[in-house]
Write a sequence for this structure.
């Protein structure tokens, strides 16, 4: 017999495990992929960077293209804005290159355009310095240049073991200020020469423009660095000192060996950067990201209009209250008037506050019981009796609200949040219970209902619980699995232990 019962429960166990696995997967997926925080008061660091572009327009059509940053190790682009009255704007992506392009039919005189980007700082992602290596350029030298390049490469290669050490030794050769190195930098910059020589050695490399982020700094300029690849892994090198590594406040602004600014129809262009750091709520960052989200896997309430989101903030808390009721009834053994009436009362308490809700509940139910007792003398049918009680509850709530307003008690107006139908059924059930079981059972079940409702209310108003239930819809499946697990419990309830205590003591 026990084997049969155990085998019959196997599908239930599989269902519970499936619900738990699916719910936890969806929850962690949203946290990891969409960066939804676990706590409501979590804060993240945002770097707001403003690029100020100034140039002299020549009274003809103007086309201006600015390299803009993209997601990278340590930084994620959250939002971007521009201020360019009268100009057309488009963000153009050419492969891995990303640029902002302004255009206007005619402009004259001094022009100023602004581009602002908010980059989310994530120090943990600095451990993944991966990227797409650039194509190795074919470079040919002749005469003295060929001799100088060959000598420097041979010296650096003999003292190196991999692309990164090769780069360090090559920069060290330039820093020795030998005549060979001086010859190479007469016609091209040091960074350009280093990239060409590394490409000649079969090492992917390019010049990138970086910005050092410091809070409150103005009129900052970009600094050229070398980005050298070894497979998919890369490292940054200061072409002047040879120092390897990327510091946490170093942003790659232009990382495709392209120009920072291209201008047609103007002259004397200049770009400067202003930087501000700020701590912002993680929830706000997610709201900004989800506004531009096109990934269908982000199945969340945030995709709904605000009015529906507000409604679901309360609805999504119901499973929490349901679990509290299940635990208190099945595991603890507390008797309540109705199965899930405490959950609805707890929802009303959330709207009214606890003290106001308790006072309102006692007043409405107390007066309702008196009216119900009077109606029972007339032997009315159940449907008519319940309907009369509903109308009576509405009248009672209206009277209490008017009296509260007249006495200046604003909290009394919140009793309107109580569900009318539930209060009516509560009054009806308590009246029948009083007639069949007596006053004691009414107080036991009524008191149990209020106690469970208060416990559910205290859990449901917790900020962490409200945040998790609203932002991680997968938790609904987890709570369903927990309810099913509780429903499979067949042992003693906590309230029964006292009843069987004499038997234990006797043994």
């Amino acid at each position: 017999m026990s084997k049969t019962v155990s085998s019959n429960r196997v599908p239930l166990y599989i269902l519970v495990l499936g619900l738990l696995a699916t719910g936890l997967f969806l929850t962690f997926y949203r946290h990891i992929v969409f960066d939804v925080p676990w706590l409501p008061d979590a804060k993240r660091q945002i770097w707001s960077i403003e690029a100020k572009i100034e140039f002299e327009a020549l009274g003809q059509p103007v086309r201006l293209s600015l390299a803009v940053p993209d997601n990278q190790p340590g930084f994620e682009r959250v939002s971007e804005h521009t201020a360019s009255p009268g100009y057309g704007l488009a963000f153009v992506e050419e492969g891995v290159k990303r640029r902002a392009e302004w255009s206007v039919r005619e402009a004259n005189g001094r022009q100023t355009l602004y581009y602002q980007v908010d980059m989310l700082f994530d120090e943990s992602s600095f451990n993944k310095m991966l990227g797409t290596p650039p194509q190795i350029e074919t470079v040919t030298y002749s005469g003295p240049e060929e001799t100088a390049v060959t000598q420097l490469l041979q010296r650096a290669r003999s003292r190196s073991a991999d692309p990164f050490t090769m780069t360090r030794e090559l920069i060290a050769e330039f820093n020795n200020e030998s005549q060979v190195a001086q010859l190479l930098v007469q016609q091209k910059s040091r960074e350009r020469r280093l990239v060409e020589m590394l490409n000649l050695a079969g090492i992917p490399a390019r010049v990138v423009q970086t910005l050092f982020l410091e809070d409150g700094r103005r009129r900052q300029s970009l600094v050229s660095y070398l980005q050298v690849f070894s497979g998919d892994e890369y490292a940054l090198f200061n072409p002047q000192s040879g120092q390897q590594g990327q510091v946490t406040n170093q942003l790659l602004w232009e990382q495709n060996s392209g120009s920072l600014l291209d201008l047609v129809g103007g002259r004397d262009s200049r770009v400067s950067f202003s930087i501000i750091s700020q701590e912002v709520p993680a929830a706000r960052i997610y709201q900004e990201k989800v506004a531009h989200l096109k990934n269908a896997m982000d199945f969340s309430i945030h995709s709904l209009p605000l009015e529906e989101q507000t409604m679901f903030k309360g609805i999504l808390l119901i499973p929490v209250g349901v679990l509290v009721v299940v635990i208190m009834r099945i595991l603890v053994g507390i008797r309540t008037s109705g199965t899930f009436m405490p959950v609805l009362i707890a929802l009303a308490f959330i709207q009214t506050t606890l003290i106001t809700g308790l006072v309102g509940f006692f007043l409405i139910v107390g007066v309702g019981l008196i009216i119900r007792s009077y109606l029972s003398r007339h032997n009315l049918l159940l449907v008519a009796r319940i309907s009369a009680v509903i109308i009576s509850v509405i009248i009672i709530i209206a009277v209490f609200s008017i009296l509260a307003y007249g006495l200046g008690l604003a909290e009394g107006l919140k009793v309107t949040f109580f569900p009318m139908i539930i209060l009516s059924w509560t009054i009806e059930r308590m009246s029948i219970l009083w007639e069949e079981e007596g006053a004691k059972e009414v107080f036991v079940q009524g008191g149990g209902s209020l106690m469970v409702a208060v416990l559910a209310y205290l859990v449901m108003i917790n900020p962490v619980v409200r945040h998790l239930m609203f932002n991680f819809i997968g938790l609904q499946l987890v709570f369903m699995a927990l309810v099913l697990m509780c429903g499979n419990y067949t042992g003693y309830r906590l309230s029964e232990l006292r009843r069987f205590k004499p038997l234990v003591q006797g043994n």
